[in-house]
Amino acid sequence: MKKEFVVIGLGRFGGSICRELSEQGMEVMAIDIDEDRVNEFASIASHAVVADTTDESVLKSLGIRNFDHVIVAIGDDIQSSILTTLMLKEVGVKKVTAKAQNDYHEKVLIKIGADQVVHPERDMGRRIANNIVSNNVLDYLELSDEHSIVEIVANESLAGNTLIDLDIRARYGINIVAIKRGKEILVSPQAAEPILLKDILIVIGADKDIDRFEKKMN
Ligand code: ADP
């Protein structure tokens, strides 16, 4: 069965989610209080509606509780974001993802029952900072406060060694789950696999251990 989504707030973030979902063939209802924004999405989303989502009767008349997943992408208007999220949970929407502008906003959204809270500016900022600070780290995905998956480029100090030679799991407590080599990707690489210069190692582990490994490389 096709999943049905609602995106509320068609700014840069919500608009981008709406476009991507539509491109992937999903049914999307796009909502914004601003008519111009809604018109922009009329030919992209399955339905585009002008509505103020802080009004419970509006949400009910749109039949919003029948959708699988609602994304609240209201930006600067934190009060509207909070009220909308609260109403959505009150009318019985099963899954609500809400965008937080800051840590306090995030706390409130979680308290009032948002099922998932995203913080795109903060997370992207962290990723870019990590990428800038370290020469070898290409990208990183935070798994928890203390664990991540990181892409590290193999430099001269690693190249030519096999995974056995490096003994990374025993020495650092981290795991290389895959190696990207040009267009090829070796998933669960064998212990005897030699690492080549410029290989991209996809490493999973505790941040402090990944950090230790990464410092050792330089
Ligand atoms: P971004 O930072 O992602 O660009 P914006 O703050 O520009 O976010 O966009 C948020 C959108 O949410 C705006 O288009 C705004 O009109 C819409 N919005 C704000 N309040 C409401 C509301 N109560 N109901 C529906 N849409 C709203």
From TrEMBL:
Organism: Domibacillus antri
InterPro entries named in the record: NAD(P)-bd_dom_sf, RCK_C, RCK_C_sf, RCK_N, Trk_Ktr_HKT_K-transport
PROSITE patterns the record matches: RCK_C, RCK_N
Domain RCK C-terminal span(s) in chain numbering: 135-218
A GO term, aspect molecular function: monoatomic cation transmembrane transporter activity
PANTHER family for this protein: KTR SYSTEM POTASSIUM UPTAKE PROTEIN C (PTHR43833:SF7), POTASSIUM CHANNEL PROTEIN 2-RELATED-RELATED (PTHR43833)
Upper taxonomic lineage: Bacteria, Bacillati, Bacillota, Bacilli, Bacillales
Domain RCK N-terminal residue range list: 2-118
Gene3D superfamilies (alphabetical): NAD(P)-binding Rossmann-like Domain (3.40.50.720), Regulator of K+ conductance, C-terminal domain (3.30.70.1450)
Pfam families (alphabetical): TrkA_C, TrkA_N
Descriptive protein name: Potassium transporter Trk
One of the GO biological process terms: potassium ion transport
